[in-house]
Specification:
mainly beta; 7-stranded mixed sheet; 54% strand
Length: 118
């Protein structure tokens, strides 16, 4: 089992920045990749960004490319999401997820709310 705990959400004005953190514990030695997803009110959960644990290969949703940066600190078992130039449409609950293989996300955090005011 792996446990994921997100932090860093909050209220910010449009154009501002936030950094989310996700601390992993437990079965972290088996993690293949980690990712951030988000779910806005009335919408399905959507992929935001991912990073492979060993090589650090990243991938982003088109909607956040150039504004968000995912990174990880393997010594701290923590993944980050630096969010710049935030827009009201970025408002959502952000979830951290861990995948033990290349295909499925097996573990999820509890989510952290990000609200961007216009």
């Amino acid at each position: 089992q792996a446990q994921l705990v997100e932090s860093g959400g909050g209220l910010v004005q449009a154009g501002g920045s936030l950094r989310l953190s996700c601390a992993a514990s437990g079965r972290t030695f088996s993690v293949y990749k980690m990712a951030w997803f988000r779910q806005a009110p009335g919408k399905n959960r959507a992929f935001v960004a991912s990073i492979t644990w060993t090589g650090g290969t990243t991938r982003y949703a088109d909607s956040v490319k150039g504004r968000f940066t995912i990174s990880r600190d393997t010594a701290k078992n923590t993944v980050y999401l630096q969010m710049n130039s935030l827009k009201p449409e970025d408002t959502a609950v952000y979830y951290c997820a861990a995948a033990m293989t290349a295909w499925d996300y097996n573990y999820w955090g509890q989510g952290t709310q990000v609200t961007v005011s216009s």
